[in-house]
Structures are given as structure tokens and as C-alpha cells.
Specification:
The complex is a heterodimer of chains A (about 300) and B (about 290). Chain A is about 20% helix and about 25% strand. By secondary structure, chain A is an alpha/beta fold. In chain B, α9 crosses α10 and α10 crosses α11. Classes of the chains: A alpha/beta (about 300), B mainly alpha (about 290).
């Protein structure tokens, strides 16, 4: 099993000299099973450079799993070149949207409208299939099993655990650690805290013991109090999560778009210094475009 | 067991989909959703006081789309699962449909219904906490109280003529409303309420509670608390537009609560906080 980052930036693409080392594309991760099965986690702009490499292995059978429908996780999809070539198949998986009442097909439908994109879905040559997934559902794709976990974001967000012949990874998509919406003096505080702990335990179980835990780590500990409720995590929470679930490696991704490479490395160095001697063997890595792990 | 036809079941279910929330909820949801910094707990406070928004939210989270094995019964749980922003947008989408008019063709007093439901909900929660710790979850108790008479609103909106006749029969013959409904419509509000929440895959104990709240065979702790709360609310003047007390009442009260309704009420103490909150919430500005 192996994976490669094609987009590690949160919110909006940020090309330019300040993001050359880590990359400016939005979220996209290529995962390969031992038999070569192609799984793509999210369709941010990183899917465009990935798509160009796939032209060498036609026909393409791409299994795309969308964590959630915010732009930065889907706006590369119409530019997934294999869509325009006959013989290819794209199977798009994701959650049901309770507000619009639509399944995962909506993420293509909204983007392929006349005003926003010149090609209609009916004109695309590849076979496009949709599978809207339930919470906790497992689907088998080639030699991989992919299981959904409902996480915490301002829109429905699925984390995905991928298992392949005893190896595993988990990708959160966008996720904010659960927090109590009540103040400690409120009557409902304790009850809500118990509900959070129950849900947190279930989420932890879904990540338990993975070889690679890829987590939304947008902010620093100092920045987070000003971003509560925005739906993103921060370094210290990601490290704590990885340690709780016994992950072997933690990949911090969804980098804050205004953070330059130098700033990113500086905040990361500060976090690592603060955790020196406390990681108990956990490897913590900043995700960057082109970074690949085979395990 | 009373039965209703599949055709009527479908018709009532569709009607609920289109039913707008209560005036105060709409007003508060619109106010709250204009503020980007709206506090989730303020939103929860509004939603969990509106039976219609509560039903619609629980219907979605418990639907087959999410395939949850553990059913969700509270709005707070929904915040944890769906997130505050999704809940906010759901509430907003329900609220832009309009408001539930206080006047309807059945002559059913919506305002009185809402206050009664809120008072009952508060009392069931209190009873659950005091008399059934470990047997009945206080949150589930609250939702059971809030939704137990939901079938009445469905009747008032969907079958105003028949429901109006049932209300008249109950008043003229001095019989409990659910018996009058059965005589006129063929099924009472417990059957309709339970049928709808069952159809929407609500937790089974809640379905049973709604189905059995006028039934002699009600046996769960939550059901007993609901029945007692219904009687207490009636005694306080919050009868949801229909008499509820029957000859079985004493049996239930003695078994779990160790006394008659006066003794239980005396032990519960001052209920004015529950009543004041219900009154305050049910009134919209200018009414």
C-alpha cells in the first residue's frame, strides 16, 4: 500500500514563491492498493497534476472518495482529465447532504452547470458512477476496504479509513476536535460533555492503530481560540489524537493558506520543540506535495 | 391496535414535511442565523422547543441516509453528529417555509398546544430524573413530552373538519379527546403520532411512548413518566386542547410514584419555572 500527496493546502490554492516547497494545491491524496487499485481522496486542485500522470495507465478506473463538499475538496474534479476519455471509469463516493437533500452526485452537478463549466456531464466520455455512503459503511475497492466515519465540520464530513492487507491509513478530511458548546456553569454542560466523550471514543476507535494518520492541522495552538467553530484542527490536538489512537505516523495537512513555507516550518519547529521527548515514538510529518510513503 | 390506511399514512407524512415551524422559533432562527457568530447553544435552545423543527431534524439524522445503528433522540446529539452549521442551515430551511398559523380550520389552539407540550416535556424530564434514574434518560423523556401529542397538530392541519368534530364531541360528551378522535376519525392522535415517528425511524422507545401515552398497557419507565406528566400538566391547565385523565391514572401513579397525583405534585415542588419558560417561548413578538 502506498500514498502520495498531490495537494496539502486548505481553503484556496496558493501558488507562488512562498509555497514552492510544500505546494499551493488544495487537498488531493492518491492511494494505491497492493494490486494497484487507485483510490483518490478528495478532488481539490491537486487532482489536476495527478490526472496527468494517469494518462500513462489507461483505461483509468478511479475510485474517488470525497470527504466533504466544500470547494477546496471538489473544485479540481471537472479538470480530472480521464473524465474526457472513453473507456475510463470514475466512481465518486461521499456523504448525503441533509440541507440540500442530495447525494454525492451534487458535487459534480453544481460544478458542471452552464454558467460555471463549458462541458456537461452527459458530454463527458468516461463512465461516471456515484455512490452515496452511510456512516460506518465499508466498501471494498480492489484489494482495499474503505470505511467512513462522520467527523466534525460545518458541512457533513467523512473521514476514511483504508485497509489493505493488514496495512492502514486514515484521512480526516476537515475536522475540528469536539468541544463543549455550553459554558461550565450551564445546566447542560455535563450532559453535553458526556455525549462528546462518547462520540470522541467512537471516532478514536475508527482510527485505532493506523500506520498513517493524515489530519487537518490548519492552525497553531495560539491561533485556535480565534477559530473555534470553523471546523479545523490544530497541531497539538492532532498530535494528541494520534497518540490516543496509537497511530504510527501523523501527517499534518490542510495548511493554512496564508502561511508561507518558512512560516509553516517555523510553527512546526515550535510545536515539535514543545513536544520534545513526549511523542513516544510517534513520527510527525508536515505533508507536502509529492511526499510519498510505501508501507 | 388501531390501524390507518397506507394512503392516509402517506398523506399525513407528506403534510408534515410541508408543515412550517411555530412563530417564535421562526423569528428566533431568522435572528440567530443573521449572526455569523451565533452560539450553537442558543440555536439548540430554540430548536428543542419547537416540536416541528425537532421532528424534522431527528427524521433526517435517523434516516437511512446515515444508517446510524444508535438512534439519535436529542438536538444536542444532533449538534455533535451533524455539526452546528448544518443544524443551523436545516433550521433556517424549515423556517423559511413560513410559520404555523395560530388559527386553523379545526379551531385547534396552536399556542395552547405548544405551551402544553413544553410544560409536559419539562415535567417528564423532571419525573425521569427524580423517579426513574437509570431507567429513563432525561433527554429522551423531554423529547417524548415534546412530541407526545404531535398527532393532534397533524390532525388539525391535515383533517381539520374531522378533527373539529372530534373536539366538539369530546367537549359535548365529556369524553377524553383521544376517544372522540377514535370515534370520528377511526384512529387517535397517539396512533398517528407514533405511525409518523416510526416511519421516520425514530428510536423504538420513543415510538412506543407516543403510541401508548393513553394506553393502559404502557409499561416503560419513560412511558409512566410521560403519562404522569400529562396528568400533572392537565391539572395545571395545560391539557393540549383535550382531556387526558382516565380511570387508569391512579394505578400508574401508585406503582412508580408511590402516591396519587397530588402527592407527586407536592414532591415535585414549584413548577412555575417550567411554565414560565414555556409561556415565554410560545409567544412571538407582537402576539
Amino acid at each position: 500500500m502506498k500514498f502520495r500527496f498531490w495537494g496539502v493546502r486548505g481553503s484556496i490554492p496558493v501558488p507562488g514563491p512562498k509555497t514552492l516547497r510544500y505546494g499551493g494545491n488544495t487537498t488531493c491524496i492518491e492511494v494505491r492498493g497492493d494490486d494497484g487499485t487507485l483510490i483518490i481522496l478528495d478532488g481539490g486542485t491537486g487532482i489536476f497534476p495527478l490526472a496527468q500522470t494517469l494518462l500513462r495507465e489507461m483505461p483509468v478506473k478511479a475510485n474517488i472518495f470525497i470527504t466533504h463538499s466544500h470547494w477546496d475538496h471538489i473544485h479540481g474534479l471537472p479538470f480530472f482529465i480521464p473524465l474526457f476519455i472513453p473507456g475510463n471509469t470514475l466512481r465518486l463516493h461521499g456523504a448525503f447532504n441533509p440541507v440540500s437533500g442530495s447525494g454525492i452526485e451534487q458535487v459534480m452537478g453544481v460544478q458542471l452547470q452552464y454558467s460555471y463549466f463549458p462541458v456537461r456531464e452527459a458530454e463527458m466520455k468516461a463512465v461516471i458512477e456515484y455512490e452515496t455512503l452511510a456512516i460506518g459503511q465499508t466498501v471494498t475497492v480492489g484489494d482495499c476496504q474503505v470505511t467512513t466515519t462522520l467527523l466534525n465540520h460545518p458541512v457533513i464530513d467523512f473521514g476514511y479509513r483504508i485497509e489493505c492487507n493488514g496495512k492502514s491509513l486514515f484521512f480526516t478530511g476537515d475536522h475540528e476536535p469536539y468541544y463543549n458548546i455550553y459554558d461550565p456553569g450551564d445546566e447542560a454542560y455535563a450532559e453535553y460533555q458526556a455525549l462528546i466523550e462518547e462520540k470522541q471514543a467512537a471516532v478514536d476507535d475508527s482510527m485505532r492503530g493506523v500506520d498513517a494518520l493524515i489530519v487537518d492541522t490548519s492552525y497553531t495552538l495560539e491561533e485556535y481560540p480565534g477559530k473555534v467553530g470553523w471546523g479545523h484542527g490544530y497541531f497539538d490536538a492532532s498530535i494528541a489524537m494520534a497518540q490516543r489512537v496509537g497511530a504510527k505516523r501523523l501527517y499534518c495537512t490542510h495548511h493554512e493558506p496564508t502561511r508561507s513555507d518558512d512560516d509553516l516550518e517555523a510553527v512546526f519547529a515550535a510545536v515539535m520543540a514543545r513536544h520534545a521527548g513526549q511523542l513516544n515514538g510517534l513520527e510527525v510529518v508536515l505533508a507536502r506535495e509529492g511526499l510519498e510513503l510505501e508501507f | 391496535m388501531q390501524q390507518i390506511s397506507a394512503e392516509l399514512e402517506k398523506r399525513l407524512g407528506t403534510a408534515v414535511e410541508k408543515m412550517p415551524p411555530f412563530p417564535k422559533s421562526v423569528q428566533r432562527v431568522l435572528e440567530l442565523t443573521r449572526d455569523i457568530n451565533c452560539r450553537p447553544k442558543d440555536l439548540v435552545e430554540v430548536i428543542e422547543k419547537d416540536p416541528i423543527i425537532t421532528i424534522k431534524v431527528l427524521k433526517i439524522i435517523n434516516s437511512a441516509y446515515y444508517g446510524l445503528t444508535n438512534k439519535i433522540t436529542s438536538i444536542n446529539q444532533t449538534v455533535i453528529y451533524l455539526g452546528a452549521n448544518t443544524l443551523k442551515n436545516l433550521a433556517l430551511s424549515f423556517s423559511t417555509v413560513g410559520i404555523l398559523p395560530n388559527k386553523n380550520d379545526a379551531g385547534f389552539d396552536i399556542h395552547h398546544y405548544l405551551v402544553s407540550s413544553l410544560v409536559t416535556a419539562g415535567i417528564v424530564r423532571l419525573l425521569g430524573t427524580q423517579y426513574a434514574p437509570g431507567d429513563a434518560d432525561p433527554t429522551d423523556c423531554y423529547v417524548a413530552g415534546l412530541l407526545h401529542d404531535f398527532g393532534k397538530v397533524v390532525f388539525a392541519v391535515c383533517m381539520p373538519e374531522e378533527f373539529s368534530q372530534a373536539l366538539a364531541l369530546s367537549a359535548n360528551e365529556h369524553i377524553p379527546l383521544h376517544k372522540a378522535e377514535k370515534a370520528v376519525i377511526g384512529a387517535d392522535h397517539t396512533v398517528v403520532g407514533a405511525m409518523l415517528v416510526k416511519r421516520w425511524q425514530f428510536p423504538e422507545p420513543l415510538v412506543e411512548c407516543i403510541a401508548g401515552h393513553h394506553d393502559r398497557t404502557q409499561s416503560s419507565a419513560m412511558g409512566e413518566c410521560l403519562h404522569a406528566a400529562d396528568l400533572i400538566a392537565e391539572r395545571l391547565g395545560y391539557d393540549s386542547n383535550g382531556r387526558v385523565s382516565t380511570e387508569r391514572s391512579a394505578v400508574v401513579l401508585a406503582k412508580r410514584f408511590g402516591g396519587d397525583i397530588d402527592a407527586v405534585m407536592a414532591k415535585l415542588g414549584d413548577l412555575s419555572k417550567i411554565i414560565d419558560e414555556a409561556q415565554m417561548f410560545s409567544r412571538s413578538e407582537g402576539t
